Amino acid sequence: MTVVHPLLLAVAVVVTVAAVAGYVALQRRRAAALAAAGFGSLAGGRLRRHLPYALLLAALPVLLVGLARPEAELSVPRVAGTVMLAFDASNSMKADDVTPTRLAAAQQAAARFVEDQPDTVDIGVLAFGDQALVTQAPTDDHTAAIAAINRVSTGGGTSLGQAILVALGTITGRPISADATAGSLGYWPSATIVMFSDGQQTGGPDVEAAAELAAAAGVRVQTVGIGTDRGTTVEVDGYQLGTALDESVLTAVAQTTGGAYHRAGDPAALAGAADSIDLRLTTKKEPVELTAWAAAGALLLLMAGALLGLRWHGRIV
Question: Which residues, 6 or more positions from 218, have their beta carbon under 8 angstroms from its beta carbon?
Answer without folding.
Answer: 187, 188, 189, 191
